[in-house]
Write a sequence for this structure.
């Protein structure tokens, strides 16, 4: 089974999301999203918000944690317009002016060909980041252009599989050159409707760990961390979090 | 039915043994045939015809395989032997349907490298990047 990254999926939840509050801290991890250390819960006051799952905020928290743990750089790949429209919320203990944030390199990519070029040329870098995060991975693949490129109705699926394989190869190459404590992790994130993402058959071939976000009845969000072994999901860990007062907040963490 | 993860672990062990001796014994082939079925025969034909090239970049050392298909067009597929091939069989039979552990081109690449029947090609790092960007 190829070693590789983790996949974060958010279930698209239409409607309102109440707020709670906590404080995030860092926790070591490899090949998966880093879960914040638990903090004592604070009183919550429900506030209605348009559809937000906090996915990008979680990814950014992972970037901060990883940069902090390793003293290395992190590459955050996303769509620039989308990020400007919905910037991530930081946890309250993160200083927006901190030097740490300068080690998170933002890379704005519009489509999957940009990702392909980046990982195809990965070996040209003299040093490698300790994490690469790709937000809204699925949105990089447009049906029409993929079908046109591959001359196949399943062009989008083909493109995704090839891109993931290329990511896997690039990361494996980089990790051959790195010290153990500075290994490069890959974290991909996407949003889907319903219980089972259609593209899980592609994702599980190249990732070791699947993290799922879904809204709960109180308006907070549950992050589940499941390792993938063969065709089965293994052990699960859970964190409950929310967005409150434009901050990322952890409520509960269970292992 | 053996889980894919177990099958792959067994296959990896066999590849390592073949690599260390630079030859595949009847026992090795028997195990590989059990795991891969007819794709093993197809792979051995590709290797016998010299259809496997390993493209390595200098000075980085990053590499991939180019494996010739069995059709008349003699198309070459980019192969990361452990986990991917650009042929349609890999996508449909391995990824989509899960009917095979890997395609014949992946097997051919593993076999050719293990027995030393790979044609080595060296390119620059920039050239390798260009080739991979066309994946």
């Amino acid at each position: 089974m190829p070693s590789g990254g983790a996949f974060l999926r958010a279930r698209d939840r239409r409607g309102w999301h109440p707020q709670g509050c906590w404080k995030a801290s860092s926790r070591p991890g490899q090949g998966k999203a880093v879960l914040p250390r638990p903090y004592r819960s604070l009183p919550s006051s429900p506030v209605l918000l348009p559809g937000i799952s906090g996915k990008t905020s979680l990814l950014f928290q992972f970037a901060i944690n990883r940069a902090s743990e390793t003293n290395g750089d992190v590459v955050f790949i996303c769509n620039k317009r989308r990020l400007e429209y919905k910037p991530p919320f930081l946890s309250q203990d993160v200083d927006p002016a901190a030097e740490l944030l300068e080690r998170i390199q933002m890379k704005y990519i519009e489509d999957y060909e940009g990702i392909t070029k980046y990982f195809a040329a990965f070996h040209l870098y003299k040093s490698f980041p300790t994490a690469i995060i790709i937000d809204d991975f699925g949105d990089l693949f447009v049906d029409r252009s993929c079908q046109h490129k591959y001359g196949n109705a399943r062009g989008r699926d083909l493109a995704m599989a090839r891109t993931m394989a290329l990511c896997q190869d690039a990361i494996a190459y980089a990790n051959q050159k790195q010290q153990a404590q500075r290994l490069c992790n890959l974290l991909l994130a996407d949003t889907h409707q319903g219980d089972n993402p259609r593209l899980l058959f592609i994702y599980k071939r190249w990732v070791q760990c699947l993290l799922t976000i879904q809204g709960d009845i109180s308006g907070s969000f549950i992050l589940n961390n499941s390792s993938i072994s063969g065709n089965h999901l293994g052990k699960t860990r859970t964190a409950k979090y929310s967005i409150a007062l434009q901050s990322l907040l952890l409520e509960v963490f269970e292992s | 039915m053996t889980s894919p993860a177990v099958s792959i672990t067994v296959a990896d062990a066999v590849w390592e043994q073949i690599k260390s001796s630079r030859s595949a014994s009847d026992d090795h082939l028997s195990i590989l045939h059990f795991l891969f079925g007819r794709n093993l025969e197809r792979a051995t034909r590709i290797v016998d015809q010299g259809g496997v090239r390993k493209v390595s970049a200098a000075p980085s050392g990053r590499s991939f395989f180019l494996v010739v298909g069995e059709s008349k067009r003699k198309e070459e597929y980019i192969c990361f032997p452990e986990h991917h091939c650009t042929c349609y069989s890999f996508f449909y039979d391995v990824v989509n349907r899960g009917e095979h552990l890997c395609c014949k081109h992946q097997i051919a690449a593993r076999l050719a490298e293990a027995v030393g029947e790979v044609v080595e090609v060296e390119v620059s790092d920039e050239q390798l990047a260009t080739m991979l960007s066309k994946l």
